[in-house]
Amino acid sequence: MLVTLAERPDLADAVYAIPYPPGSPAFMAGSLTSLLVRGRRVARRWPHLVVALLEDGRPVARGIMVPFRSRGTLPARGWDEVAVWAAEDALDGVGCDTACALEIAVHPDHQGRGHSGTVLSGMRAAAAGLDSLVIPVRPPDKAAVPSLPMREYAAETRPDGLPADRWLRTHVRAGGRIEAVAPCSATVQAPLEDWRRWTGLPFTDDGPVLVPGALAPVLVSTAQDFAVYVEPNVWVSHRVC
Predict the structure, then answer these.
(1) Is residue 157 part of a domain?
(2) What is the pLDDT of residues 148-169, one digit of tens each?
(3) What is the CB neighbour count within 10 angstroms for residue 27?
(4) Potential cystine with 188: which of 9, 30, 72, 117 (Cβ 3.0-4.6 Å)?
(5) In a domain, 145, yes or no
(6) What angle do CA 230, 233, 239 make, to 5 degrees?
(7) In total, how many domains does the chain have?
(8) 100 assigned to some structural domain
(9) Which residues, 6+ apart, have CB-to-CB distance to 101 below 8 Å?
């Protein structure tokens, strides 16, 4: 059963208690932009855009969206820029025409049962009344080839023409259309001590460092005592129901 928090506000605590999948990189918690659309903030302001999949009355997966006014193009700065646009539009009282999915999370005990696709369908329905649903997709399998440009990775297909990446393939099978690559979609910049705590790596050398779970190398400056991670995502659009 799919519900939104507008329909079931009593489920908010349980919905946000769903953990991210095992292996999700801890360093993504260092994204400052994500604070603009922190979970509980979205639940208070846009509860109709927070979707939960229930089994036996308990949330086992969630999908979170924010609305924004289209500026005529998909933002090259992807996830981060949409978060800023959504916050700006809310502060300015601007009418919105587009929903952007910020995340889909399935409880680790319920993985591998097609719940991501079910939640995606629910998000399309929850976005009804807006013109479209767009998603800066983070293909987690890209972490196996962090030095490969996202444009090349996203273009890889199977013999049947579907994307080689399993998560992009899920979107295409659900009717999504790959629109573009967002080359700098999510950025984390932090002192080296934070990176050491997040990753367990020494960060003693300058230059690119390959970090488990990262879709691209992390760029390190020991002299300046910081490292920057710039993550590429893939823009996918969906029709709303």
Answers:
(1) yes
(2) 999 999 999 999 999 999 999 9
(3) 21
(4) 30
(5) yes
(6) 150
(7) 1
(8) yes
(9) 63, 64, 65, 120, 123, 133, 134, 135
Interatomic CA distance for residues 37 and 65, integer angstroms: 10
Instruction: Measure the CA–CA gap between 211 and 91, rounded to whole angstroms.
Output: 36
> Looking at this protein, which amino acid is placed at residue 7?
E
User: pLDDT category, 48, cuts 50, 70, 90?
Assistant: very high
Q: What letter would DSSP give residue 74?
A: -
**Which SS3 state, helix, strand or coil, does residue 60 take?**
strand
What is the rounded average pLDDT of the residues 139-143? Answer: 94
Residue 164, domain extent: 2-181+234-238
What are 89's two structure tokens?
């539009």
Number of other CB atoms surrounding residue 162 within 10 Å = 14
| pLDDT exceeds cutoff 90 at 21 | no
Q: Give the single-character DSSP code of 206.
A: S
* CATH number of the domain enclosing 36: 3.40.630.30
Cα distances from 128 to residues 10, 30, 40, 101, 137, in angstroms, run 23, 32, 22, 13, 20
Angle at 146 between CA 202 and CA 66, to 5 degrees: 100
According to the model, what pLDDT value does residue 186 have? 96
3-class secondary structure, 109: helix
Cα→Cα distances 5→54, 55, 60, 166, 167, Å: 12, 16, 14, 29, 25
Report CA Rg, the chain.
Answer: 18
Read off the DSSP letter of residue 66.
E
